[in-house]
Amino acid sequence: MPHAQQFEPEEFAPAPARSRRSWDPVVKITHWSIVTAIIANALITEEGSGAHIWVGYALAAVFALRLLWGLIGPAEARFSAFPPSLRRAVGHLRDIRVGRKEIHRSHNPLGALMVYAIWCVLGLIIASGIAMAGPPSGALPGSADQAGEVSRHLVAEQDDDEEEDEVKGAEGSESMWEEVHETSVNLLYILIALHIAGTVFETRRSGREILLAMLPGRA
Q: Residue limits of the Cytochrome b561 bacterial/Ni-hydrogenase domain (predicted)?
């Protein structure tokens, strides 16, 4: 007579192991460098100062590296791993509503849309900042020598009506870029708050160590 098959009670079944996530070093370095630059220019440097502008240049360089890494980096870091898709994002919302959990090798569809939104706003901040400050040069932006040179240049040409019109046009353009820059920065803060909230929510919902995965030293 065959032995009856024995089943282990469900309460004694081993709990499923939590899925661990880790990003490659370049993603981690660029992520935290961008975070540091944003915090520095928001809380430490004075707006329009030389330090503020040079932090912006550093931010532009790190951001360019991250975009390049999205083309040549490992699979999880590439743009192809998390393409922006409104349809997939809506599907992910349905999954959340019914309690369905799916493992994603990179950002989930909602997270992907947020990442691209942050990158677009970040690019606008960098572009508007460079439009106001100009490209990097040997002199520290906002330094006394550079300011004095600009002042002498304006005084020398103040009697020329044509040049004066050009200066007024430049001032109007700078004012426009200042408004774009300030609006983009405020929008970035909102997106960052939503990004943090979404990351915490998804970590609690899926049980994956999303927050810990971005920390340095995690394999």
A: 23-217
Would the pTM count as exceeding 0.90? no
More confident call, 4 vs 185: 185
**What CATH number belongs to 20-135+158-213?**
1.20.950
Domain ranges of the chain: 20-135+158-213
Q: Residue 8 has which token pair?
A: 């282990």
Summarize pLDDT for 128-178 with one digit per residue, the tens. 999 999 888 655 555 545 544 544 554 455 555 455 555 455 556 678 999
- Is the distance from CB of 46 to CB of 142 less than 8 angstroms? no
- Which bin fits 217, alpha (ψ -120 to 50), beta or left (φ > 0)? left
What 3-state class would DSSP assign to 99?
coil
What's the first-to-final CA gap in the chain, in angstroms? 52
66/78 Cα distance (integer angstroms):
10
